[in-house]
UniProtKB/TrEMBL annotation:
InterPro entries linked: Homeodomain-like_sf (IPR009057)
SUPFAM superfamilies: Homeodomain-like
Protein name (Swiss-Prot/TrEMBL): TetR/AcrR family transcriptional regulator
């Protein structure tokens, strides 16, 4: 005898949001479909059970992106240049581990979730502090984000050249940050 209601599928062990996001990340990076039906089949649940946990398709992709970048935030310690460097290098490194997801995310700005939006705001604050000018800081943030995203898109197709590309990104980032910082003013 079973305790489930008629018309309801058997309860599977892995029906939680975390399991769905993990399965979605595995599938997207393997180049497989990430439909609710495909995820449900992999997890042994219905497509509607998947949808119940994650919302619509855009919400699923936003949640997957949020999972990849969870916890990435500038350290409150250190100088703005150091925070910017550490944050952007971490961002690019995480993105490099999920190139197919990043292609989807960068193709649709609506997929940027609140974690990445907050990260963008923190970058803007550090850029303004580094340059000493909020307007210049906004321009610098745009340049740094565009450079990071260009590198991420290149990493999506880099194959064995990924390490060299990441090293070149770090060197270019250092140059941009050094160039953006105002030179100290000498005394009389």
């Amino acid at each position: 005898m079973t305790d489930r209601r008629p018309g309801r599928p058997a309860r599977a062990a892995a029906t939680g949001r975390a399991a769905i996001l993990d399965a979605g990340l595995r599938r997207v990076e393997a180049g497989e479909a990430i439909s609710f039906r495909a995820l449900g089949a992999e997890l042994g649940v219905t497509a509607m059970a998947v949808r119940h946990h994650v919302g619509d398709s855009a919400a699923l992709l936003r949640a997957m992106t949020g999972r990849v970048f969870a916890g990435i935030a500038p350290s409150p310690d250190g100088d703005p240049r150091g925070r910017l460097r550490a944050t952007l290098l971490s961002y690019v490194a995480r993105a490099a581990r999920h190139p197919r997801l990043m292609q989807l995310t960068l193709a649709d700005p609506a997929l940027v979730g609140p974690d990445l939006s907050r990260l963008g705001e923190a970058l803007a604050q550090d850029c303004a502090a580094l340059t000493g000018d909020p307007a210049a800081g906004g321009h610098l943030r745009d340049i740094l984000v565009d450079q990071a995203h260009g590198t991420i898109l290149a990493l999506c197709h880099a194959g064995q050249d990924a390490a060299a590309l990441q090293a070149r990104y770090a060197a270019t980032l250092d140059w941009l940050l050094d160039t953006a910082a105002p030179a100290p003013r000498g005394g009389p």
